[in-house]
Write a structure and sequence with these properties.
This protein has 336 residues and is an alpha/beta fold. The protein has helices at 36-43, 72-86, 111-122, 157-168, 182-191, 212-230, 260-278, 298-308, 314-329; strands at 18-24, 27-29, 32-34, 48-55, 94-101, 126-132, 172-176, 197-199, 235-239, 283-285. It contains nine helices and ten strands.
Length: 336
C-alpha cells in the first residue's frame, strides 16, 4: 500500500470545490500507519477538504470487557480525533465530523445496548454502523482485508434483529459487498425501507485475476445489479474505492506513480455508470484512504474524480462532493 504522497505536486483541478471526504480510515495495520497527522497532510495538499467521515477500520478495539462492547474503543478513538480537529488548532478541515463504527448486528436484540454506548461515546458525531459483508469463494481478496465475513450475513435473521435497532436510533448503515452480493443489499433495503443504507465503493465489481472478456461480463452484471438496487430509494452510493485491487485494474502491481489522467481513463466507465444510475442526488464522493493508496496518491485520486465529473454543473458537483454527505450523515451545515 502506498503512503498517499504519489504525484502530490499535480496541479489541483477545481481547487475551490468544497469536499467532504465521505469515507476514510485511520489505522495502523498491514504495515501502514495512517493516523490524524497523515490524513491532515493529505487533506491540506491542495484540494479543498472541508470535513471528513471516519469509517470503521476494525482498529483500537478495547482489549478488556464484554466482547460486543470492545468495539466502542474505536468510536472513542475516532471521537478524540474529531474533538482535536474541532478545536481549530489543526486548521479548518473538520476531520471525523461524522463517525461510522462497527457493531456486530448478528448479536440480535442484545446489540441495542452496544449502539447506545457508541452514541454516548461520540455524541452527535456518531452517525451509524458499517458491517462488512464481503464474501468470496477464494482466499485472494482477504489478504487486503482485516475481517473475513461469513457468507450471507446480510440475510441472517439475527442480523436483521440487530439491524432493526438502527432505525429506532436514526442511525445509518454502510454496506460493503462485492457485485455478486448486491441482491442481498436489495433485500435488506426492502425489509428496512426507513433505514438509510449507503453502498460503499459502488459495490466492488470483483474482477481480480480476470481477463478482458471476463471483466466485460462482470461489468455488465455489476451494472444490472446497480440498476436493481437504485430502485430502492433508501439506498445511496459512495463513488470511490477504485484504488482497491478488487476491480482487477492492476495499478497496485506496477512500480509507477500514476497521474490523474491514468486513473481517470480506467475509472471513468465505473464512475459515470454509478452516477448515471443513482443520479447526482444519491451519490457521495469518497477517497477510501489509505486503502485506495494501493493504487495512487490522495491528490491524483481527487483530481481523477474531478476530471471525470468536469462537465457536471457547479450545482451538481457541489451535491456530489459536499451537500449529499452533509444530508446523508447530518453533518454540521455550518461547515464551509
Amino acid at each position: 500500500m502506498k503512503k498517499g504522497k504519489d504525484n502530490r505536486n499535480e496541479t489541483i483541478i477545481d481547487p475551490d470545490l468544497p469536499i467532504i471526504d465521505a469515507h476514510h480510515h485511520l489505522m495502523e495495520m498491514f504495515g501502514v500507519r495512517y493516523l490524524f497527522d497523515d490524513f491532515l497532510e493529505d487533506a491540506y495538499a491542495g484540494h479543498n477538504i472541508r470535513a471528513s467521515i471516519y469509517c470503521e477500520s476494525h482498529t483500537m478495539f478495547r482489549v478488556k470487557g464484554p466482547e460486543l462492547f470492545r468495539t466502542i474503543g474505536e468510536t472513542e478513538f475516532a471521537n478524540g480525533v474529531g474533538a482535536m480537529s474541532d478545536s481549530g488548532e489543526f486548521g479548518e478541515c473538520r476531520v471525523n465530523a461524522g463517525i461510522i463504527s462497527f457493531a456486530n448486528l448478528q448479536a440480535g436484540d442484545s446489540i441495542a445496548e452496544v449502539l447506545d454506548a457508541h452514541i454516548v461515546s461520540a455524541g452527535i458525531r456518531f452517525k451509524g454502523i458499517r458491517q462488512v459483508g464481503i464474501w468470496h469463494p477464494t482466499k485472494d481478496p482477504y489478504k487486503f482485508m482485516k475481517s473475513h465475513p461469513k457468507r450471507g450475513i446480510y440475510s441472517d435473521s439475527k442480523f436483521h434483529e440487530g439491524f432493526a435497532k438502527l432505525e429506532q436510533r436514526n442511525l445509518t448503515f454502510d454496506a460493503a459487498v462485492f457485485h455478486h452480493q448486491l441482491d442481498e443489499v436489495c433485500l435488506l433495503a426492502d425489509k428496512f425501507p426507513n433505514t438509510s443504507i449507503i453502498l460503499n465503493h459502488m459495490g466492488f465489481a470483483m474482477a481480480m485475476g480476470k481477463n478482458k472478456e471476463e471483466k466485460k461480463l462482470i461489468f455488465d452484471d455489476w451494472r444490472k445489479y446497480l440498476i436493481s438496487l437504485s430502485k430502492r430509494l433508501n439506498v445511496k452510493v459512495k463513488v470511490g474505492g477504485l484504488g482497491m485491487p478488487f476491480w482487477g485494474f492492476g495499478f497496485e502491481e506496477r512500480d509507477y506513480q500514476f497521474s490523474f489522467t491514468d486513473l481517470a481513463e480506467i475509472w471513468r466507465p465505473y464512475v459515470e455508470t454509478a452516477i448515471e444510475i443513482f443520479g447526482v442526488d444519491r451519490c457521495i464522493m469518497e477517497s477510501n484512504f489509505p486503502a485506495d493508496g494501493h493504487s495512487c496518491g490522495y491528490v491524483p485520486l481527487w483530481n481523477a474524480l474531478k476530471f471525470i465529473t468536469q462537465n457536471f454543473s457547479k450545482e451538481e458537483k457541489t451535491k456530489l462532493y459536499f451537500h449529499n454527505a452533509v444530508q446523508t450523515y447530518n453533518i454540521d451545515p455550518f461547515i464551509r
